[in-house]
Amino acid sequence: VEAQKEKAVQAFIKTVGAMAEKALEYNLPIYIETFDYKWDKKRLLGPVDFSAKVIEEIRANYKNVYLMWDLSHGPLLGEKPDVIKPYADILGHIHIGCTKKLDDKLYDWHPGFYRPGAINTEKDVAELLQVLHDIKYRGAVSFEVKPEQEQHPLEVVNSAKGVLLRAYEIFLENNL
C-alpha cells in the first residue's frame, strides 16, 4: 500500500508541476487543498504536514503552487487551525465551513452552521482568525457551505455571516 501511495504522490507531483508550468504563462496560482483520507472522501493528500511536504516539493520548481486549508476538514483530519502556522509562507487560500457528523461518522458535506450534525462553530472560526492574524496572513478567505435539502440558500448565507461576525467579536475580545 505504501509503495502505491508513493507512486500516486509522485504522479500527483508531476501532474501538478505540469499544471503549474502552464499556469505560469497566465500568471495564475494553483491551490492544493488538504482533504481527509480516513472518513469520507479518502483522498491522497490528507494532513497538512504531509500535504505541505508535497507542495514544498512542487514549489522547488514552481512558486505559484500554494496550500489551501479548509476549517471543515480539520475535524476529519484531527487538526486545529494552529496546524497551519509553520506553513504561512505557502498558505494561499482558506475555506471556512462545517463538517457534518451523523451516527458517529464524519462527512465532508459543508452544511450550513448550526444545522443538525454540523460540528464547526464560531469558536473554531475565531480560533482560525487568531491564527491567521498571528501569521500575518493576507490571502483569500472564503466560505464553503451549501444548503441542505429543503433549506433556503439565504439561511446558509446569513448563518455564515452571523458566524463570521460572532467569531470576529470573539477575536476582538481576546485581542483588545
What does this structure look like?
This protein has 176 residues and is an alpha/beta fold. It has one domain (2-175): Divalent-metal-dependent TIM barrel enzymes (TIM Barrel, Alpha-Beta Barrel), CATH 3.20.20.150. Helix content is 43%, strand content 15%. The strands form two sheets. A four-stranded parallel β-sheet has the order 1-2-3-6. Strands 4-5 form a two-stranded antiparallel ribbon. A hairpin with a 2-residue loop joins strand 4 (100-102) and strand 5. Helix 1 crosses helix 2 (48-59) and helix 4 packs across helix 5. The N and C termini lie far apart (50 Å). The mean pLDDT is 95.
Briefly, what is this?
The protein is an alpha/beta fold. It has one domain: Divalent-metal-dependent TIM barrel enzymes (TIM Barrel, Alpha-Beta Barrel). It has five helices and six strands.
- Structural shape: globular
* Gyration radius over CA: 17 Å
CATH fold-level assignment: TIM Barrel
Residue ranges: pLDDT <50 for 5 or more in a row?
none
Strand content: 5-15%
Determine the CATH superfamily: Divalent-metal-dependent TIM barrel enzymes
Give the H and E element order: HEHEHEEEHEH
| Strand order, sheet with most strands | 1-2-3-6
Mean of pLDDT: 95
Main pleated-sheet profile? 4 strands, parallel
Structural class: alpha/beta
